[in-house]
Write a structure and sequence with these properties.
- The chain is an alpha/beta fold.
- Helix 7 links the parallel strand 1 and strand 2.
- Helix content is 20%, strand content 27%.
- The longest helix has 20 residues.
- It has 9 helices and 31 strands.
- The strands form 5 sheets. The protein has a 10-stranded parallel sheet.
Length: 459
């Protein structure tokens, strides 16, 4: 999850508390203005200055909540149907994807990819990608309205965190204007602290092999962000420090968990064609009332807690959370949380689960989970055949949760325990358009993960 704004250092806060207790008897006695009163005023003024970052982030959070409410879809079943209809239409015939555009075969095997990968001019018309999103995050256009920013410098030195040097990724992502960010060449960027991304950004790794390591990518209280074609791995927890988080603000940050990507209090986010493994916490966490998010075409391997959607059973703000997980490959060495959901509405569609060591899809706090057209291959261990896990919840409570499986394919004894329909809204064939069947998943996810795209050739 995102690092928090540091308000008061422990030692400073303790000294202030002890100071107030030391002068409390005199204050209660109603003494007249004294040197002690002046000291109290000075201490309070110091406290106000210290909490400036807290006020700044509170204001950003309030603005973000307004945008999140606007991004929320009141009829999520209709959004699911639009997705399924588009997939079935695009894949209705062999020629629909194979020869959709231009001369010769197109390597795209799902409609998101077919929107741009069949064009050999993708490098000179990168922004076509902004029209290709699907699912709840389909409105994300990232830096469509901005200029191209080319990252030329892979450095991320600790001394530059408050004033990032031009040409670096950190300098690009904090600018207070829309930008479409690309990379001049292959590079490994070892982040020294969390990378805080502002609104209206596309980070587009096509045309280069770009690795982000060392710390997490943070989207906190922002909107309209696309993250595309990156390799994100080995993010570590960091203690925080003074970090620039926008063009007009530098502030103290608390510790970051070491997620691969942390989406907190944000909306209209699309994460596409990422390859991720081996981070300190989750690979992708979506928390704190975030909504309108799509995670597509990703390849995830070698990790325990893969995706967390909703950080706490007590975070009722996550009722507005709506996330699409589509065309991803959940590969070797994964344990659990693909995803683990709370409160919101989650469409898990046409993904390939090649194995899990505990469970694949889990949740608590009555999330709605619609699983359609996935392929689930269980491990050989008989204890871990079940796809689903209602985390620490008895049947008497979860029996009314809407967890539906439609057109999924189950291999090696895998099974999905459905629930819902005893009370409240029922989602079934009368509500939902049929997804593309799980038997097509191998094709739909064939090119999941970061792509090796080169200018002048179809990607």
């Amino acid at each position: 999850m995102a690092g928090s704004a540091v308000v008061v250092a422990r030692s400073s806060l303790l000294s202030i508390i002890l100071f107030f207790f030391s002068i409390l008897p005199a204050a209660v006695a109603g003494t007249a203005a004294t040197q002690t009163d002046a000291a109290i005023d000075a201490a309070y003024a110091h406290l106000v200055n210290i909490t400036g970052d807290q006020e700044y982030w509170a204001e950003r959070a309030e603005v973000a909540r307004a945008y999140n409410r606007l991004a929320y879809v009141s009829n999520p079943a209709a959004a699911v149907n639009r997705f399924n209809h588009a997939v079935r239409k695009a894949t209705a015939s062999r020629r629909s994807l194979a020869h959709q555009l231009g001369r010769g075969p197109c390597k795209a095997t799902n409609p998101i990819d077919a929107c741009w990968r069949c064009h050999d001019d993708w490098a000179t018309n990168r922004k076509r990608l902004a029209k290709c999103g699907m699912g709840f995050g389909h409105k994300a256009t990232g830096g469509l309205a901005g200029r191209i920013y080319v990252v030329t410098d892979p450095r991320d030195d600790a001394k530059d965190l408050a004033a990032p040097r031009k040409g670096t990724l950190r300098h690009a992502v904090v600018q207070d204007r829309p930008l479409w960010i690309t990379f001049a060449r292959d590079m490994v960027i070892e982040l020294t602290q969390e990378l805080i991304v502002t609104s209206d950004k596309t980070i587009d790794g096509r045309g280069a092999q770009v690795h982000l390591t060392g710390a997490q990518v943070t989207l906190q209280n922002v909107r309209n962000v696309i993250i595309h074609n990156l390799r994100i791995h080995d993010a570590a927890a960091r203690d925080g420090g003074v970090i620039r988080d926008s063009g007009h603000h530098v502030g103290a940050r608390g510790a970051s968990d070491g997620d691969g990507i942390s989406v907190s209090g944000s909306s209209d986010v699309w994460i596409d064609h990422v390859s991720m493994h081996g981070c300190a916490d989750g690979l992708v966490d979506v928390v704190d009332g975030s909504t309108a998010v799509t995670i597509s075409n990703g390849h995830f391997t070698r990790h325990d807690h893969v995706m967390l959607f909703g950080a706490s059973d007590g975070a009722a703000k996550d009722r507005i959370m709506q996330v699409t997980v589509a065309f991803n490959h959940f590969g070797k060495g994964l344990v659990q949380r693909m995803p683990r959901c709370r409160w919101g509405f989650f469409h898990v569609v046409n993904n390939d689960y090649t194995h899990w060591l505990m469970y694949a899809i889990g949740g608590s706090q009555n999330p709605t989970i619609i699983s359609q057209g996935n392929r689930f291959r269980a491990v050989d261990d008989a204890k871990f055949k079940e796809v689903t896990n209602r985390v620490y919840t008895p049947y008497s409570e979860y029996k009314d949760w809407v967890w539906k499986s439609q057109d999924d394919m189950f291999l090696n004894g895998a099974f999905f325990t459905q629930s819902g329909g005893q009370s409240g809204r029922r989602f079934d064939q009368s509500d939902l358009i049929q997804a593309k069947s799980g038997q097509y998943v191998e094709s739909l996810t064939k090119y999941a993960g970061a792509l090796k795209c080169r200018a002048g050739k179809r990607c």
